[in-house]
């Protein structure tokens, strides 16, 4: 049995994984469970230890992680970090082998993805932008929604790998398209959380049983994945981060900037972007984005 498993593993592409945070750690572990060989690199030793414990290999540098990989997957917080790991003498582009496929699953600006694809092509490397939605729970359960930008042939190559990480996987168009759809996703999620937060405060101040109210609301047109995933956060005021306000602030900057560039008005999105920004200035940046509830409570005269 083990010989069969070993031979199956050897015919699959070898994977380098850069960035083992809240999302990256469980995602890389799901690839290991699916039978892929994964070599990881990240800045925190405890995250490398976790990957090793799950059966992965660990590297001491980006160069070491990517040098023999067929596929390089990156999952880091924002555009500056993607540029830091991709470019320069110690970066992915200089050290990956020719023909390797880079799948960047970070949420960054569409332009950063377009620029990366162009720079990689000059080195004989292929790139997909493949940001995800579903948060920590979606990463753990391997049910992420993955929006992809790039060439159809590269998407076809990547699809079996992505199917070990998510459930809804769609090629949205050329390079940068995945990031554009992710920006729209973050707009919808933020506005949805804000609406839920306002409803929670309204319901509580009205003396209604919140658990009962959220249950019945979630069964009708007001129901949503956001409400399903975040209901307990609201009920218990539990804001342990699955997706931090700091990161949603970054994403709201991406979507408002990109919308301005294409001439699309985001009147409600702009207001929610300001509310997210205000939470950061009040010290709540490290909390889950369901902590938008705290902003509504403050505006409604409650101590938080």
Automatic annotation (TrEMBL):
Name of the featured protein: 2-hydroxy-3-oxopropionate reductase
Enzyme class: oxidoreductase
E.C. number: 1.1.1.60
Key words of the record: Oxidoreductase
Organism: Streptomyces achmelvichensis
């Amino acid at each position: 049995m083990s010989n069969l498993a070993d031979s199956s593993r050897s015919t699959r592409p070898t994977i380098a994984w850069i960035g083992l945070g809240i999302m990256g750690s469980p995602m890389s572990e799901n690839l290991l469970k699916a039978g892929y060989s994964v070599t990881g690199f990240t800045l925190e030793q405890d995250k490398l230890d976790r990957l090793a414990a799950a059966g992965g290999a660990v590297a001491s540098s980006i160069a070491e992680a990517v040098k023999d990989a067929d596929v390089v997957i990156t999952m880091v917080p924002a555009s500056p970090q993607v540029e830091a790991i991709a470019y320069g003498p110690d970066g992915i582009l200089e050290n990956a082998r020719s023909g390797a496929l880079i799948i960047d699953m970070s949420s960054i600006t569409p332009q950063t993805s377009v620029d990366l694809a162009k720079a990689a092509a000059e080195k004989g490397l292929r790139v997909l932008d493949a940001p995800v939605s579903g948060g920590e729970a979606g990463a753990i359960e391997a049910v992420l929604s993955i929006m992809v930008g790039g060439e159809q042939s590269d998407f076809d190559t990547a699809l079996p790998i992505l199917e070990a990480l998510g459930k809804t996987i769609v090629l949205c168009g050329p390079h940068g398209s995945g990031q554009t759809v992710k920006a729209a996703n973050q707009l919808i999620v933020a506005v949805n959380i804000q609406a839920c937060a306002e409803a929670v405060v309204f319901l509580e101040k009205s003396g209604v049983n919140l658990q009962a109210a959220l249950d019945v609301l979630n069964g009708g047109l007001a129901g949503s994945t956001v409400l399903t995933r975040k209901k307990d956060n609201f009920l218990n005021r539990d804001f342990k981060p699955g997706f931090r306000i700091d990161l949603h602030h970054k994403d709201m900057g991406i979507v408002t900037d990109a919308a301005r560039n294409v001439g699309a008005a985001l009147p409600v999105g702009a207001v929610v972007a300001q509310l997210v920004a205000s939470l950061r200035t009040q010290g709540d940046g490290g909390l889950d984005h369901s902590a938008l509830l705290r902003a509504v409570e403050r505006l409604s005269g409650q101590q938080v």
